[in-house]
Structures are given as structure tokens and as C-alpha cells.
Specification:
Elements: H1 3-32, H2 34-55, H3 67-87, H4 93-99, H5 103-114, H6 121-139, H7 147-173, H8 179-204, H9 213-241, H10 243-246, H11 249-264, H12 271-287, H13 293-296
Length: 298
């Protein structure tokens, strides 16, 4: 199996897993609250990776937590996990998955700025198409666009931007660091950062529903599968193909998210959702090629 074929399969597997994450978040967040969910998710993710390290005899790869790891954890876990969890209290899992597909054009724009490249017509067109896709998705949404729904949409865009910056930061700051060390380092750092917020969250009890079996099972799956396993795959791709190409995983997450939402949550697929998704996918296609040799390595 060639490296390119292997990485394509890994990308597909990651998309399917992260498509499921929106389902698990939607089920778990009413009982855990956004901050409680984020803290529990990274804590379970870190525990799962520690167990894997011990069983496989790789404890020597346990990293030292330092400032770069804390920055990575903030950008790639604390901000996006909390923003997405908050958003899914107010919008469907499918809707959130589609909005998260804005990550690739945002990542490409940031990479271009950092590389001091010019914005090519394809990149500008792709960004404009992505904005139009979000506008169609929001403007023609079957749900009432209330103030809290607009805040949820903004939270999803903040999460996408944070993911984009995190991918570039990881590529630049952790060259030579193994995928396992990166994954466990991020989850441990995020657990440390979220702990005081989690304690405060429990004190004010920001959960919307009582705890029950389904939210607990969803949280375990979110931590072990969508965090522990998923980030091993994600950081492998960051090193293998770069952050811009890795962000293309969000090209595939929305179809999986819509499919899983339809199958498991009985969410309805509206024409506006498909049109908005199509425009965002066109946007991703337009920005999918590196703009220059420099930006390709961002």
C-alpha cells in the first residue's frame, strides 16, 4: 500500500469518526454542559492514550507539558470543544457539522497570510463561496434564527478558525514529535487548562438535563474514539500531508455528520442544508491546492 493511498484511507476514517462526534456531543452536552463535556472528553481521551502507551510499552513517548503544548491545547481543544458543545445546545448535529466545514478555507487563508503569499483568484473565490455557503445555510435554515442561534453560529465559526490556527501551529512547532506524543500532550494539557473551568461549571450547574445512561455512553465514545483514536490519526496526517490538506477532512465530515444525524437522531435533511453544503464543498475544492511552495508546507 502506497503512503498516499494509506493517508487517504486514514483521512476517510477520521472523517467518519469525527462525523460521529457531533452525534455524541448532541446527546451528551445537555447532561454535562459545554465546559463539563469538554473537560470530561479530554480527560477520558488522555486516560485512553495513557493506557495505550502503557500496554504498548511506549511510555517513553510521554511528553513534558510546556508552553507550546498549552497553546496547542487551547487552540485545538479548549476553544473549539467548548464552542461546538455550546452551539449544539441550540443547533442540530448536522447543521454544526456543515458549519465546521469552513475550516479548510479559513486554514488556507491563514496559511497564505503567514507565508506572505498573494491571495490568488482561486483562493479569493473559494473564500467567497464558503461565506456564501454559510449565508445560504443560515438564511434558509428551517430553524428560527433567534439571537441565541446566531451566537451558536458565531461559536461554530470561532471553532473552525481555532482549528485552522491549531493545525498550522502544530506543523510549525512540533516537527519531529510523534503523533502519539502530540495526541497525549494535547489532551493532558487541555485537561489541566479546563480543570478550573470545569470546577466552576459544576458549582453553577450549567447542565440542562439530568445525567442518564445515554449521555454517559456518548461521552465515553466521544473521549475514547473521537478524541484518543482520532487525534492519533489527525497528528499523523498533520506530519504526513500538512495542515491545509489535513483540514480537508472537514470536506468529508458534513456528509458523515448528516448521515449519522439522519440515522441515529432522526434529523431531517433540508434542501437549504444541501445547497449550503454544496457551496462550502466547492469552496474547499477551490482552496485545496497549495498557493505556492511555501504555503504548501504551512
Amino acid at each position: 500500500m502506497t503512503a498516499r493511498y494509506r493517508d487517504t484511507l486514514i483521512l476517510l476514517a477520521l472523517a467518519a469518526i469525527w462525523g460521529f462526534s457531533y452525534i455524541f456531543i448532541r446527546v451528551a452536552v445537555p447532561a454535562f454542559g459545554p465546559i463539563g463535556l469538554s473537560l470530561t472528553r479530554v480527560a477520558i481521551g488522555a486516560a485512553g492514550l495513557l493506557i495505550w502507551m502503557a500496554v504498548s510499552g511506549q511510555l517513553d513517548q510521554l511528553p513534558r507539558i510546556n508552553r507550546p503544548f498549552l497553546i496547542l491545547a487551547t487552540l485545538n481543544a479548549l476553544i473549539p470543544y467548548t464552542m461546538i458543545a455550546f452551539a449544539e445546545l441550540h443547533v442540530s448535529a448536522s447543521f454544526a457539522a456543515i458549519l465546521n466545514a469552513t475550516t479548510p478555507p479559513i486554514t488556507a487563508a491563514i496559511a497564505t497570510i503567514l507565508a506572505r503569499d498573494r491571495f490568488t483568484p482561486a483562493l479569493v473565490s473559494g473564500m467567497a463561496c464558503g461565506v456564501l455557503g454559510v449565508a445560504v445555510l443560515v438564511g434558509w435554515s428551517p430553524m428560527p434564527i433567534t439571537g441565541i442561534v446566531l451566537i451558536a453560529i458565531i461559536a461554530m465559526i470561532v471553532a473552525s478558525t481555532s482549528y485552522g490556527v491549531a493545525g498550522i501551529f502544530a506543523k510549525r512547532s512540533f516537527a519531529g514529535t510523534s503523533s502519539l506524543s502530540l495526541a497525549i500532550g494535547q489532551q493532558m494539557s487541555a485537561s489541566m487548562l479546563l480543570l478550573p473551568f470545569g470546577i466552576g461549571s459544576m458549582a453553577i450547574s450549567d447542565a440542562h438535563e439530568p445525567m442518564s445512561r445515554n449521555p454517559i455512553l456518548a461521552m465515553i465514545a466521544l473521549g475514547l474514539v473521537c478524541t484518543s483514536l482520532a487525534y492519533l490519526l489527525y497528528f499523523h496526517l498533520i506530519h504526513a500531508v500538512g495542515p491545509v490538506r489535513t483540514s480537508m477532512v472537514t470536506f468529508l465530515i458534513p456528509p458523515f455528520g448528516i448521515l449519522w444525524g439522519w440515522i441515529f437522531l432522526d434529523e431531517h435533511v433540508k434542501p437549504s442544508m444541501l445547497l449550503g453544503l454544496a457551496l462550502i464543498l466547492i469552496s474547499i475544492r477551490l482552496v485545496s491546492r497549495p498557493q505556492s511552495p511555501a504555503s504548501a508546507q504551512e
